Amino acid sequence: MKLVAAIDVGGTSIKGALVDPDLHIIATANAPTPQNDVEGSKTVKVISELLSKLASPGEIKAVGLAVPGALDETNGISRWSGNLGWKNLPIRDLLAREIKIPVAFGHDVRTGALAELRNGAAKGLNNAIFIPIGTGIAAALIIDGQIRSSNGFAGEIGHVNVGGEFNCVCGKKGCLEAAASALSITNAYAQASGKTGTSSEEIATLSQNGDAIAQKIWENAMASIATACQMLITVLAPEVIIFGGGLSQSGNLLIDPIAKSLGESLTFQKVPQLVIAHYGAQAGTIGCAMLALDLLPNGGN
């Protein structure tokens, strides 16, 4: 049995997992994402240290690396990532040279969609959209049974204008990501309440329990997500929209207000099913492992 590592680089943390060929997670290790690491060297070092925590030298046969932003997946280059500060960074090759292990490279959202398409909530469907909500927001588009990327630029739903009031990392104002990402929700609550360190999941619970500030922030965020979903539904007519990422742990507190808003706004459009990802917040991890296993003969078995 050959083991692989899944590395998911987010704007806040880098998540690592040791995975077997049956997609069982054997061990995990996380670390804060280095900030202002425009050359990627600090990030590569952190990943190398995570791999050392996950397994002994030689045990890991391949690594699946997922990062956010606009990517050249074929050549392993991050063209642009607002949350990481990367531009035209050959991160796959930088990591491969450091760890001397084969590295498969993919978009953090599309790797999650791969897991859901092969063995999750999109299995057997032709048209679906996967939207993980974490530090950032993007969408993976499954069209005619295939994940479509348009050379790495498709699916950046986090940067459509939903009429929000906050500035975005992309330089614009009103983007979905600035209104409804987990980071944006926590920042908005801290600004309005004066209380720092409250997670987005806790804000969802506070909203449910009658906290007026939390209710307003949560309702605004859910309305923004519903607006973006309405755009996707009108243009792409998915059978299902799958929510992942950290915010998916809020379950029906996430699904119900979006479904209600869509029920009030959609007219002729085909109404999709709204579900939480089969792999939840671990969809990206499982997808990374799948990419790594694809590098090995017989999937590592």
TrEMBL record:
Native source organism of the sequence: freshwater metagenome
Gene3D superfamilies reported for this sequence: 3.30.420.40
Protein's name according to its UniProt entry: Unannotated protein
InterPro entries to which the protein is assigned, alphabetical: ATPase_NBD, ROK
